[in-house]
Design a protein that fits this description.
40% of the residues lie in helices and 22% in strands. With 457 residues, it is an alpha/beta fold.
């Protein structure tokens, strides 16, 4: 009898599963059509980048970007829009950096293309002239520690090309930007030059945040373009007595007030449960911050707009957050997590887009195995839109504090990464570098993912 009942039971269950999949597929198609036909993401990005531009925390552009975010969320149809205040660092670059080789060789040597690293101290107006010591790694620095005193340390650590996913190259190399100054100051260095975090073919230096170890003196730190890094290395091979003149004018001012910009669609069934989706509103001062992270901001706003326009009513509250100060302090993400914990909020998932507006491939995530398996089960629904990669661990910088504070599952849109580090933190991260179609596909990918999370998590 039991053997006869099992096939009958399966026959009863299978049509229901199929109907659910068909229903989800129809809603995903509805959201995709809305985004791909009517998206405002590209125009929102144009306004953000071309009328405001670089918007580092504490800069005059910061409050302009916050107001842009408020207006864009209201225009997208948010039920509620508000600001979350937080204190943010206020680092200023000052006058353009100068760097040149001082050599006994008589040939003409053009100036080196450098950018001060974020949070670095400056050299002061007189600048610094000192011998250069090239090192290939921290291990090489340790081996040469007796030669370091009084010198400018040149970290010539190359981005590893063998990683197919280039964020692994970045993760491998970024310690030289973050820790390089203090590691060199420990042995008496007067400044550091760091090979840019890129494997691009350009000579644009890539800035980014660094931090000081309070145990050692603060010394100036700059990034150098790849072609000039090679040129400097070759010069040192010919003339190991060559010096560098370096002048930077950056400084850290007192903290100032910034804001997370928040917009919500109220949940129809569980309004006190939250699904967060966001990107960071700040960017480095040297470019327009189009891919990093204007793209993530406009994609997150588009999620909200698409739900509203398509008439898809989430059961949980979808909260779009444009985070403050990701680049050189992560104060916005920390404040968001702090307030969520204080209010005892229930967070179902946090999703971030901060890997550029390129063609979406899937999602990285950090969550319990049961939810991970559920997420992977959505692949047949999402694969028709080019989404197939759901295996990698990960999550965004701004949602990491929420994950740590509340254990909230987190995920990040994972676009194709091959071009990202051509423009990351560099002057060429501009609106023109963003492809409209790719940007919109990423926005739909996030909307579709959020729709499924709302139903099944």
């Amino acid at each position: 009898m039991r053997k006869r009942l099992l096939p009958m039971l399966l026959t009863c269950l299978l049509p229901a599963v199929t109907r659910a999949q068909q229903s989800d597929s129809l809603v995903l198609r509805q959201l995709a059509d809305e985004v791909l036909r009517n998206s405002t993401a590209y125009e929102n990005l144009r306004v953000l980048t071309k009328t405001i531009g670089g918007r580092l925390a504490g800069s005059p552009q910061m409050p302009k970007a916050e107001q842009w975010g408020v207006n864009a969320l209201k225009a997208a149809g948010a039920d509620t829009v508000y600001l979350q205040e937080c204190m943010v660092p206020h680092w200023v670059r000052g006058a353009k950096e100068e760097a040149r080789i001082v050599s006994k060789l008589r040939d003409f040597v053009p100036p080196l293309n450098v950018l001060a690293l974020g949070n670095s101290v400056g050299t002061g107006n007189p600048g610094i002239t000192a011998p250069v010591l090239e090192v290939a790694s921290f291990e090489d620095l340790e081996a040469k520690k007796d030669q370091v005193k009084g010198k400018i340390i040149f970290y010539n650590y190359h981005f590893k090309p063998e990683f197919v996913k280039t964020f692994y190259s970045y993760g491998d190399a970024v310690k030289y930007r973050g820790q390089g100054a203090s590691r060199a100051a420990k042995y008496g260095a007067v400044a550091v030059i760091v090979r840019s975090m890129s494997h691009g073919a350009f000579n644009f230096p890539h800035t980014g945040a660094m931090a000081y170890d309070p145990a050692y003196p603060k010394i100036p730190a700059v990034a150098i373009g790849l072609q000039d890094a090679d040129r400097l290395s070759n010069r040192l091979k010919k003339d190991n007595s060559a010096k560098i003149f370096l002048r930077t004018n950056c400084e850290m001012l007192p903290d100032t007030i910034g804001h997370n910009v928040v917009g919500e669609i109220r949940g129809s069934k569980y309004p006190d449960q939250f699904i967060t989706v966001g990107g960071h509103l700040d960017s480095w001062d040297v470019a327009e911050g189009a891919h990093d992270d204007g793209a993530g901001c406009v994609q997150s706003i588009e999620v909200l707009r698409a739900f509203k326009a398509a008439g898809v009513k989430p059961t949980r509250t979808i909260r779009v957050v444009l985070f403050a100060n990701e680049e050189n302090g992560t104060r916005g993400g920390k404040k968001y997590a702090e307030l969520a914990k204080q209010r005892n909020e229930k967070h179902i998932l946090a999703l971030e887009s901060d890997a550029g507006g390129f063609t979406p491939r899937g999602f990285t995530s950090t969550m319990d195995p049961e939810k991970k398996a559920k997420m992977k089960s959505w692949r047949p629904l999402l694969e028709p839109y080019g989404l197939y990669d759901f295996n990698e661990e990960g999550g965004g910088t701004d949602i990491g504090p929420l994950h740590q504070a509340l254990g909230t599952p987190m995920a990040e849109l994972s676009p194709d990464s091959q071009r990202y580090f051509d423009i990351h933190h560099a002057v060429n991260d501009v609106f023109e570098a963003v492809n409209k179609r790719e940007l919109e596909l990423g926005a739909f990918s996030m909307a579709g993912f959020i729709y499924l999370v709302d139903l099944y998590f």
